[in-house]
Amino acid sequence: MARKRRTIKTPAIKRKLDKPVINESLWVKSTTEVADIRSETLTQNGGVCEMTGEAIKRASLDHDHSSPPIVRGVISQHCNTMEGYIAKYFNKYCKNHTDLSISDFLRKMADYFEVEWGRGLHHRAISDYQTKLCRMTIPQLESICIKEEGLIPTYSEKKDLIVFLTQVYVNEMEFLYSKLYSKEV
After folding, report:
1. What is the pTM of this model?
2. For a tag site, which of 10, 28, 38, 158 has the least CB within 10 Å?
3. Which residue in 163, 157, 176, 175 sits closest to 129, CA to CA?
4. Looking at domain 28-114, which of 3.40.1800.10, 3.10.310.10, 3.40.190.120, 3.40.50.300 is its CATH number?
5. Residue 42: what pLDDT?
6. Which region, left, alpha or beta, applies to residue 80 given φ > 0 means left and ψ of -120 to 50 means alpha?
C-alpha cells in the first residue's frame, strides 16, 4: 500500500505577509544564482577549498550566519558543515562567557592546541578506549590485532582480546609520550 505524502502547509500568517522591499542588487535571490556564484568562485580559486586549500569534491557557497548574512566564499561541504557546528556551539557555550569574537576565540584555540604540554597521560583515555573496544565484535577486535598491530590473536574470548588490545594501547601511548617529551616512564 502506497503511503500518503504529507505536505507541509505554509502558515496562513506567512502567506498574508507582504514581501519586503529589498535592494535587488544586494541579494542572491535563487538557487541558480547560488550555483553561478559557486561555479565562478570555484573556477577563480582553482577548484580548491578556501579553508583547507585542498581540492573540493562537493562545494558549498558559504555565508556568514550573523548580521548581515554576507556571502563569503566557496568551501567544501564538509568544511561548511563543520563551520556551522563550530559557530553554533560557540554561540551556545562560549559567547556569553567571553568578550572574544569567534575568530579571536578560534585563533586562541589553535594556539592552545599547538602548545606542548607534556603533563602526563589522561587516565580516562584507557577507559574510553576500552569502551570503544567493548562495542566491537570478536571479528572486529581480531581485525584490529591483525591490521593495526600485525599480530595474530591467540585469544578466543572477547574479554581477553580487549585486555590484550588495551595493554598494546597503553604501551603505545607510553612510548609516544616518552618519545615526544623525553621523560622516563
Report:
1. 0.64
2. 10
3. 163
4. 3.40.1800.10
5. 93
6. alpha
